Each structure stands twice: as structure tokens, then as C-alpha cells.
Amino acid sequence: MLENKVDSSLHWQAEGKVARKVEIMPTKSKTNVDCGKILHKLPMTFVAVDLETTGFSNDQNDIIEIAALKIKDGQIVDKFETLVNVGYGLKSEISELTGITDSMLENAPSIYAVIPKFENFAKDSLLLAHNASFDVDFLYCAYKKVLDKPLTNDYVDTISVARRVFTGSRTLSAMCKYLGVTNKSAHRAASDIAATVECYFLMRRIVIDEYGSEAEYEKTFNSKGSSSKVKAKEIIAKPEAIDENSPLFGKYCAFTGKITSMSKREAMQLLKNIGGEPQDSVTQQTDYLIIGGNGFNNKKQKRSKNIEKAEANRSKGINTQTISEGIFFELLEGR
Q: Domain named BRCT: which ranges (predicted)?
């Protein structure tokens, strides 16, 4: 049982620059070769973080809320919570989803005031988040923009833990329902991160009981299987799971780099199940190229052939979008 040792929220006055107005559509997403890496561990000490944003694209949309909990030995010892003034009116869809309005952001601090304080709060701590690559990518871009340096913290993704606990949808709402956790204000960062942490510790207990130790759990991610050599033609859809309302229904998707929160086979299977079309490589049919956590060759700083093919498509007027795996999983869940 977690004990909250902090009663007051942290909030600061607005100052500095404001961001530009952008669209909500998921567009190009950067893959970062100098960011931290995902760890398949079950830590008791970490900083859990959740963001609310104006859209999916980490280099074209903006953070409107950050909430974080500092956990030490399984106990909440500090917290960070603030809205972020983006300097323009929010789309109605975002306000409806989050409950955050323009008037709520009017006197909030800008990202230029928030990020230095968040960096001081998190320091070099291990981060934890649900669908972590989404939050990490946004923070990476914010660090580069405000601090002129990358976010290099390693992180744990609770989706990876959830894979070892239950099947089916692994959205935060599905995870809460499965584990009996109440999220009083879904899509508000403070409530979401509190629910995420509670779910994580419940799942951690289940995983330790199942595998016997953290070391044995880690081994399940390190085994060398055939999943990396999976072919799209091997993936067979489950007809009962097809969702014609999914933003990925009928979309052709290729993958490059290592998918960090699950195997490539699992990602392709989830896509196929809802009616998407996984591909082995980018073609002129490709709608999305999903870039995993290792989408670039770190040693040579060289882009993959699939990324080059996607860029070639766009130069010919073919709208092949490159997106991070975090955005892919958001779209997969219909958000």
C-alpha cells in the first residue's frame, strides 16, 4: 500500500516565451539516438511521470500539463504538478478529453519556466510511465528546446509489465479495470500518474509471484527468439477484434528499429487484429512507418533504409508518415 507523504501540490507563476500554434494531427516524429533507454526492471525507487499534450506529434504539439511522483523504496516522498501555458487556444477535442480549458492555462507558467524545475525535480532518476516512449519523446523535445540538451534518463514502461500480467487492451483505463484501481479524473496528469503507480505496484507483486524474482522477469525480455525475423504474411488477424473505427483500420504500417515495449511480432499482431496491414518494409502503399527505440544506427548515426524510403515517398508526394512507437500505441488504442 502506497503512503502519500506529500499534501501540497507544486505550482509556479508564468514567465518567459510561449509556443507556436500547431495542428493536432500526428505527423513526423523524431527518433532520438542520445536519449535514455528502456529498462525491463521492477524498481522500487523512481520518478513516475505523466503528460497531457495538445496532440500526438512531439515536435509539432505541446505539453499542457505535467505531473510526477517521486517514489523512494515504494513510498511517495515528493510530487510535481503544473499546468503549462502554451500561448494559444486549445482545440475543443483536447479540452473535452482532458477537462483542461484555456482559462485554466491563462495564468500557468510557460514551458520555459516549467522544464528547468522539472529537471531539478527528476534529476537523473529512473523514470516510469505508461506508454513511456510517448512521454519520454515529448520531454526529450522539451529539454532540447528549453535547456538545449537531451533528456537522457532511462525509463520503465508499465505496458511492458502489463504484458506479463494480462492480455487484451493495455490502456491505462483497461489496466485500472483489470486491477480494480480507481482513476478519479482520467486524462488529467495527476490522477493518471497516481493510478499508474498504484497499478504498477500491484502488477509488480503479481510478476514477482509469477517469476520468483526481478532477475527472472528480466530474462523474459532478453531471450533470443524468432520474433525479430517475423514476416508480415505470417500474421493472421483475429476477426472478432477488427475495429473499423480505429484510426489504423486499413492502414499499411511498416516498422524499423527495435520496438521497446513489446516484440515486433506482438505489435504486428495487434495492428492486424484491428484491421491494419503490417508490412515488412516501406512501399508506396505505406501510410505509417513506426520507429522503435533503436530506429537509427547509434554507432554510425545512420538512418535506416526504411526511413530513407519513407522520405523518398514524401518527396514524390506520397504521404508516408514516420511516427514513434509511442504514437503508434496511442493510435492503436483509438486515441
A: 243-335
In angstroms, what is the C-alpha Rg of the chain? 19
The mean per-residue pLDDT over the stretch 9-25 comes to 30
Q: In the structure grid, which three cell numbers stand for residue 241, read together?
A: 477484434
Is residue 22 pLDDT above 70, yes or no?
no
Tell me the average pLDDT across 36-47.
95
Closest CA to 137 of 286, 329, 327: 327
- What topology does CATH give the domain 232-333? Rossmann fold (3.40.50)
- Partnered with residue 254 across adjacent β-strands are 279, 289
What are the two backbone dihedrals, phi and then psi, of residue 304, each rounded to the nearest 5 degrees?
-70, 160
Query: What is the SS3 assignment for 323?
Result: strand
Rounded Cα distance between 310 and 299, Å, is 22
Where do we find the cell 525507487?
45
> pTM (2 decimals)?
0.74
Which residue pairs from 225-232 have beta carbons closer than 8 angstroms and sit at least 24 positions apart in sequence? 225/263, 227/263, 227/264, 227/265, 227/266, 228/263, 228/264, 230/264, 230/265, 230/268, 231/280, 232/268, 232/277, 232/278, 232/279, 232/280
Rounded-to-integer distance, Cα 332 and Cα 251, Å: 11
- Domain regions of the chain by residue span: 46-220, 232-333
Q: Residue 327: which of 297, 288, 300 has the closest Cα?
A: 288
Answer with the residue of higher pLDDT: 295 or 132.
132
Total Cβ atoms within 10 A of residue 19 = 20
Quick check: helix, strand or coil at residue 261?
coil
Which of 165, 8, 186, 149 has the alpha carbon at shortest distance from 80?
8
Domain over 46-220 is classified CATH 3.30.465.10 = no
Q: Exposure of 208 by Cβ count < 10 A (0-12 exposed, 13-18 middle, 19+ buried)?
A: middle
Residues 6+ apart with CB under 8 A from 216: none
